[in-house]
Automatic annotation (TrEMBL):
The chain crosses the membrane at residues 12-31. Gene3D superfamilies: Spore Coat Polysaccharide Biosynthesis Protein SpsA, Chain A (3.90.550.10). Keywords: Glycoprotein, Glycosyltransferase, Golgi apparatus, Membrane, Multifunctional enzyme, Signal-anchor, Transferase, Transmembrane, Transmembrane helix. In the N-terminal section; belongs to the glycosyltransferase 8 family. One of its GO terms (biological process) is protein O-linked glycosylation via mannose. This is LARG1 glucuronyltransferase. One of its GO terms (cellular component) is Golgi membrane.
Length: 756
C-alpha cells in the first residue's frame, strides 16, 4: 500500500510539473520583457530594428529566451508521453510488485480492488474512506468465554468506544461465565448508544464439537464459523473481532470497507503475516491448505445475507470434513477452515490492507504494514506471548494497549450528539430519582451517592468453587481499597474456605491489583476467591454497596460478614461449618457472632487457641475491639461471659451494636445511604433485629483486628462538621424508614437511640 501511495505522489508531482513549468516560463519571459520598470512588448511590430528601444543586445537576449522556451516545451512533451505510458502500465505493474507492497488489496484481482486498497489508506493523499452515515449502527460480533477473555474484551471495547462516533451494537457469543461478567459490566457501565446482545455459546458447542482443535482457544475458537446461523437473520453485515484486538482508529472506517465488496466477495480479511501456511516453519510442518500466505481471522468483515444465500454452513462443513480426513485436527481453529474454503473459492475474499490487522506474533511481517506507527488502525496480539512478543515497535504497541487497559471507563459514557439513544428504563428511573433530590440540600452529595451506578466487573480473576456435599459451606465476605491489598495473603492463610471480595479501585489500580495478584504464589494458588472490581466514582467510599456486591456473588448457603482488617482465627472456617449444623442455621433466623479483638502491634504472634488469646488479653497484648473509642459497638457480645463460655449463648440487640456475624445468604442487604465512615454496620444489625434474627455468640470463635493508618473517610468524619451533621440526618431518616417498614416493633430503635 505504501508503495502505491508513493507512486501516486510521484504521479501527482509530475502532473503539477507539467502544469506549472510552462506557466512559470511565461511569467519569466514576461518579467524579462521589462526594462527600467516599463513593459517591453513582444509584438512583431515592436521587434523591428527601427524601434527606438531596439538594440543588438536585447535582440540576442530575446533569441536566447525563445530557444530556452522551446527546450522547456520539448521536455514537457517528453514528460507527458512518459506519464501517459506509466498510467497505461500501472495496474499490471502494481500487481507485479505485490510481494514488495505487502498491503495491496487483491479482492478478485482487478484494478478496481487495487484502487480501493489505495482509498483505504491512512494518509489523506491516498484518498478517503466512503462516508458512513452519522447515526448508522455498527454491528460487532465477539466470541468470549471465561474469566480472562472477559478482561480482554473490556480493553477491546474501550479502544472501540474511545474512537467511535456511531452507535454500536455488540453481539457477544459468550459462555455462562462471560455472560454473567459482561452483562453486569455493561449494565452498570451505562454507555449511551451501545446495545449488547448475548448468544449462548454453550448451546453452539454441538455445532462444532465434532472438529478436533489443537489451538489454545479450544472449542470456542471454532464458533465464528456458525455466526451466519447464530446471529439474527435480518442482520446483513457484521465486523467479527478476536478478544486480543486493540483499535487505534474509528471502527466506522472499517465498517465503510463493506461498500467496496463486489461480485461474490463476502469475506473481508487481512493476509496472514506469518509463514505458517507456507509450510516451511519446521521439518514435516504440514498446515491446512491456504491461498498463498493464507488469511488471519482476528478481524473479519462478514456479509451475512450473501453468505446465507451461498449456503455457507454447507460450504464450510463439507470442506472441514474433507480436510479432516487427512489433517485429523485444526491447528489454528476456525482460521484453518476459513482458509481451506477460500483456497477452493478465492472469489469469496476481499483482501483488506494489513494495517486493519497488524499481527504481533514472533516472526511476522507486521512491520511492512505501516510506514509509521501513526498509520496503524488495528493491533492484534495474536501470539500466546501477548505483550512480550518481539517487534521493533513493541514498546509503542504495549503503551497503546496499556493506555486503554488503564483508561477510566467512566469517561467513555459520553453521548453521541445528534444520535438519540434507545430508551433505557434503568437510566430513565435513575434520572428521575436524581431530579427529585434538592441540589441546595447541604447533604445532597450524600443522598446522590445512594443512586450512583458504579461500573462493576465481577470475577476479575479466575474463580473455581466446588459446592460442599453437606451444604454447610461458608464464604468470608469483605470489601477493600488499594491501601489494604497487603491483607489478602494473610487472610487467605487464615481462611481456607471460599472468599468473596469487593475491591474499590480505579481502572489503573485494577491493573496494579492484577499484577500484584499474579505475582503472589499465595493468591494464585487459591481459586475459590472471587474478586469483584467496583470502579471508583464520586467522592465517597461506597462501603455498603461494596458489601452488597460481595454478598450477592457468593456460591455458598452461608456467609461470614467480616472486614478486610480482621484476621480470623486459624480453623475458623471448619468451626463455623460445624456451628451451622449444631445451631440449625438452615431452619432458623440466627446471626452467629464471632467475637472481635484487636492489637496495636504491627507484628503479632497470632494466638492459636482461645486459652492463648485470653492470656494475651490479660497481658495487654490484645484488647476487645474498640473498647477505648467505641465500647457500645461490641459491648453486647458480653466478653466477660465469653471468657468462660463453652456453649453458644444468646445476647440481645442494643443501640449501636455492630458485631461480625455469620448468616444465611438470604439476609437483607446493607443500606446504601451510609457511605464512608459511620453507621454502615450498625444499620444492618438493626435491620437484622427488626427481622427477628436471634443473635448467638460462638464460644470458641474469635477474630483479631490488625492496626493500620486511619482511612480517608474517618479523617473526614473527625475533621468535617458538616459530614457529622449529614450522617446524623441520614441516621434519623433510616430509623424513620424502619418504623414505617416494620411498624410498632421498630419504635424501640428510636427510644434506644434517645436513651443512649
Amino acid at each position: 500500500m505504501l508503495g502505491i501511495c508513493r507512486g501516486r505522489r510521484k504521479f501527482l508531482a509530475a502532473s503539477l510539473t507539467v502544469l506549472f513549468v510552462p506557466a512559470i516560463t511565461w511569467i519569466y519571459l514576461f518579467a524579462g520583457s521589462f526594462e527600467d520598470g516599463k513593459p517591453v512588448s513582444l509584438s512583431p511590430l515592436e521587434s523591428q530594428p527601427h524601434s527606438p528601444r531596439y538594440t543588438a543586445s536585447s535582440q540576442r537576449e530575446r533569441e536566447s529566451l525563445e530557444v530556452r522556451m522551446r527546450e522547456v516545451e520539448e521536455e514537457n512533451r517528453v514528460l507527458r508521453k512518459q506519464l501517459s505510458l506509466a498510467q497505461s502500465r500501472s495496474p499490471s505493474h502494481q500487481r507485479g510488485n505485490h510481494s514488495k507492497t505487502y498491503s495491496v488489496e487483491e479482492g478478485t484481482g482487478d484494478s478496481e480492488s487495487l484502487r480501493a486498497g489505495i482509498v483505504a489508506g491512512n494518509s489523506s493523499e491516498c484518498g478517503q474512506q466512503p462516508a458512513v452515515e452519522k447515526c448508522e449502527t455498527i454491528h460487532v460480533a465477539i466470541v468470549c468465554a471465561g474469566y480472562n477473555a472477559s478482561r480482554d474484551v473490556v480493553t477491546l471495547v474501550k479502544s472501540v468506544l474511545f474512537h467511535r462516533r456511531n452507535p454500536l451494537h455488540f453481539h457477544l457469543i459468550a459462555d455462562a461465565i462471560a455472560k454473567q461478567i459482561l452483562a453486569t459490566l455493561f449494565q452498570t457501565w451505562m454507555v449511551p448508544a451501545v446495545r449488547i446482545d448475548f448468544y449462548d455459546a454453550d448451546e453452539l458447542k454441538s455445532e462444532v464439537s465434532w472438529i478436533p482443535n489443537k489451538h489454545y482457544s479450544g472449542i470456542y475458537g471454532l464458533m465464528k464459523l456458525v455466526l451466519t446461523k447464530t446471529l439474527p437473520s435480518n442482520l446483513e453485515r457484521v465486523i467479527v473481532l478476536d478478544t486480543d484486538i486493540t483499535f487505534a482508529t474509528d471502527i466506522a472506517e472499517l465498517w465503510a470497507v463493506f461498500h467496496k465488496f463486489k461480485g461474490q466477495q463476502v469475506l473481508g480479511l487481512v493476509e496472514n503475516q506469518s509463514d505458517w501456511y507456507l509450510g516451511n516453519l519446521w521439518k514435516n510442518h504440514r498446515p491446512w491448505p491456504a491461498l498463498g500466505r493464507g488469511y488471519n481471522t482476528g478481524v473479519i468483515l462478514l456479509l451475512l445475507d450473501k453468505l446465507r444465500k451461498m449456503k455457507w454452513e454447507q460450504m464450510w462443513r463439507l470442506t472441514a470434513e474433507r480436510e479432516l480426513m487427512s489433517m485429523l485436527s485444526t491447528s489454528l481453529a476456525d482460521q484453518d477452515i476459513f482458509n481451506a474454503v477460500i483456497k477452493q473459492n478465492p472469489f469469496l475474499v476481499y483482501q483488506l490492507p494489513c494495517f486493519w490487522n497488524v499481527q504481533l506474533s514472533d516472526h511476522t511481517r507486521s512491520e511492512q504494514c505501516y510506514r509509521d506507527v501513526s498509520d496503524l488502525k488495528v493491533i492484534h496480539w495474536n501470539s500466546p506471548k501477548k505483550l512480550r512478543v518481539k517487534n521493533k515497535h513493541v514498546e509503542f504497541f504495549r503503551n497503546l494497549y496499556l493506555t486503554f487497559l488503564e483508561y477510566d471507563g467512566n469517561l467513555l459514557r459520553r453521548e453521541l450528539f445528534g444520535c438519540p439513544s434507545e430508551a433505557d428504563v434503568n437510566s430513565e428511573n435513575l434520572q428521575k430519582q436524581l431530579s427529585e433530590l434538592d441540589e441546595d440540600d447541604l447533604c445532597y452529595e450524600f443522598r446522590r451517592e445512594r443512586f450512583t451506578v458504579h461500573r462493576t466487573h465481577l470475577y476479575f480473576l479466575h474463580y473455581e468453587y466446588e459446592p460442599a456435599a453437606d451444604n454447610t459451606d461458608v464464604t468470608l465476605v469483605a470489601q477493600l481499597s488499594m491501601d489494604r491489598l497487603q491483607m489478602l495473603e494473610a487472610i487467605c492463610k487464615h481462611w481456607e474456605g471460599p472468599i468473596s471480595l469487593a475491591l474499590y479501585l480505579s481502572d489503573a489500580e485494577a491493573q496494579q491489583f492484577l499484577r500484584y495478584a499474579q505475582g503472589s504464589e499465595v493468591l494464585m494458588s487459591r481459586h475459590n476467591v472471587g474478586y469483584h472490581i467496583v470502579y471508583k466514582e464520586g467522592q465517597f467510599y461506597p462501603v455498603n454497596l461494596l458489601r452488597n456486591v460481595a454478598m450477592k456473588h457468593i456460591s455458598t448457603p452461608y456467609m461470614f460478614l467480616s472486614d478486610i482488617d480482621f484476621l480470623p482465627m486459624y480453623g475458623l472456617y471448619e468451626y463455623l461449618r460445624k456451628s451451622v449444623i449444631q445451631l440449625d442455621l438452615a431452619n432458623t433466623k440466627k446471626a452467629l457472632i464471632v467475637p472481635a479483638f484487636e492489637t496495636l502491634r504491627y507484628r503479632l504472634s497470632f494466638p492459636k487457641s482461645k486459652a492463648e488469646l485470653l492470656s494475651m488479653l490479660d497481658m495487654g497484648t490484645l484488647f476487645t475491639f474498640r473498647y477505648h473509642v467505641w465500647t457500645k459497638g461490641h459491648a453486647p457480645t458480653n466478653f466477660a461471659k465469653w471468657r468462660t463460655a463453652t456453649t453458644p449463648y444468646r445476647v440481645e440487640w442494643e443501640a449501636d451494636f455492630e458485631p461480625y456475624v455469620v448468616v444465611r445468604k438470604d439476609c437483607p442487604e446493607y443500606d446504601r445511604r451510609f457511605v464512608g465512615f459511620g453507621w454502615n454496620k450498625v444499620a444492618h444489625i438493626m435491620e437484622l433485629d427488626a427481622q427477628e434474627y436471634e443473635f448467638t455468640v460462638l464460644p470458641n470463635a474469635y477474630m483479631i483486628h490488625m492496626p493500620h493508618a486511619p482511612s480517608f473517610d474517618i479523617t473526614k468524619f473527625r475533621s468535617n462538621k458538616q459530614y457529622r451533621i449529614c450522617l446524623k440526618t441520614l441516621k434519623e431518616e433510616f430509623q424513620q424508614d424502619m418504623s414505617r417498614h416494620y411498624g410498632f416493633a421498630a419504635l424501640k430503635y428510636l427510644t434506644a437511640e434517645n436513651n443512649s
